[in-house]
Structure formats: C-alpha cells, structure tokens
C-alpha cells in the first residue's frame, strides 16, 4: 500500500461510518425489498467498519457476509458484532469488490452503501448479478445529482472526483443495462451526511491537522476533505445519496 493510500484510510479509521448513511435509511431500504421476509443470505460489499452491516443483521434475522479491502475496518466490524452478540451471523472477508470469488447464486441480497463508485455503478452491478439467486435483490446507495442544473462549483468538484455521477433516471437506466429491474428509490436525508459522517470527520481532521504541517500528503488530503464538507454546506440541495432498490431480472 502506498503512502497516499495509507493516509486516505487514516482519514476514515475510527469514524462511525466511512460515508453518508444512517440506521433508519438502512432499515427503510431493507423493508422495501421482497427479500425482507425470511432469513436472507446477504453480501455487504465495501462494508467499511460496518455500521450498516450490524443494522442489516438485526433487521433481517439473516446472515451477512461483509467484504472490504481494508482489514482494520473488518476488525472494527468484528468487534461491533461481538458487542451486539451477532458474531454467529456476520462473517467478514478481506476481498476486493472486483474479485469476489463466491459461487454463482450464493446470496438473496446484495448490499452496498456508498461504495459502488469504486468500480462504477453499472460495472459493479453487472459483475455482482451472478452472485444473486433468481429473483434476488440489490440495494445500493449512490451519489446522485438531484437537479438537472447543479451549481458550477458542485459540477466541477464532482466532475473531477466522480465523473460518472448521474441523475436518478441515469442510474436506473444503468441498473437496467446491468440486468436489474428497478423497484424503488429514495434520497437519504441531510442528517445522514452530518450525524455519523461529516461531524465526526471534522473532529478527526482537527486532530490530524496538528501534525499535517510535517506531512504534506496528509495535509493535502485534509484540505480536500474540508473542501468537500464546505461544498455540501453550500449545495446540499443539488446532490445527495440515493438508495436504488433493484431486483435481478431473469
């Protein structure tokens, strides 16, 4: 792992979440799916430290396999699972979302909150489809334009950071091309950005800044994180995370 990659992970270690989200949104998305009945086998892709993984295990009664490339996130999830008495229903695997080696048809539900952008929404959904059983479902939250005419400042920032970012209908069409039938969507509230993500991150950035003058890579990353937070303060109505609820088309 390069120095820059280590510093990127350092920005997010110890935070409640590694991206916008909340327990209410996770529960709402799960209850809207046909797989909400029974005890589904769930694959949580790009799980991070697993706040949503714990919630999925609690609300589903099923088994969750959580995968991430960063082992410290998985160790944190394992500790949370033990504290919640869920270690028998949550399994972690250190694995890239581009190299998921599970057999075809292993899962009833694929879950990914704020992580599909790593490979691209359409590419990820297409690759993961084989892992679903017939009529299996996927729930993916994705950064999305909420207006056809976003402010230029926001368009420039996310055009560089997330060049394939689209509007809701763009992403629904990507899901269709990847082999899914869209079921529903909803946008996460602004509180899902602040309560467990940006507010804790701001506190951590303040601590990291005490040593950033001696670490140019870290200083650059901190500046970028602050710029993102400031942008959301000004333009939260222009973009947000949207949950896409999908069923495998067979």
Overview of this protein structure:
It is built from nine helices and seven strands, in the order H-H-E-H-E-H-E-E-H-E-H-H-E-H-H-E. It is an alpha/beta fold and 250 residues long. The mean pLDDT is 93.
Reconstruct the topology from this structure.
Elements: H1 3-12, H2 23-31, E1 41-45, H3 51-60, E2 63-68, H4 71-83, E3 90-94, E4 107-113, H5 121-128, E5 132-145, H6 152-161, H7 168-177, E6 180-187, H8 191-209, H9 216-235, E7 239-248
Parallel strand pairs: 1-2, 1-4, 2-3, 4-5
Antiparallel strand pairs: 5-7, 6-7
Helix pairs in contact: 1-9, 2-3, 5-7, 8-9
Report the strand count.
7
Strand order of the largest sheet: 3-2-1-4-5-7-6
Sheet/helix structural class:
alpha/beta
CATH architecture: 3-Layer(aba) Sandwich
The CATH topology turns out to be: Rossmann fold
- CATH level 1 name: Alpha Beta
| SSE pattern | HHEHEHEEHEHHEHHE
Beta-strand percentage? Answer: 15-25%
Biggest β-sheet strands, sense, barrel: 7 strands, mixed
Mind telling me the C-alpha Rg?
Answer: 18 Å
Total helices: the number is 9
Share of helix, binned: 40-55%
Large-scale geometry? globular
Mean pLDDT: 93
CATH-wise, what's the superfamily?
Answer: Vaccinia Virus protein VP39
Query: Unreliable segments (pLDDT under 50, ≥5 consecutive)?
Result: none
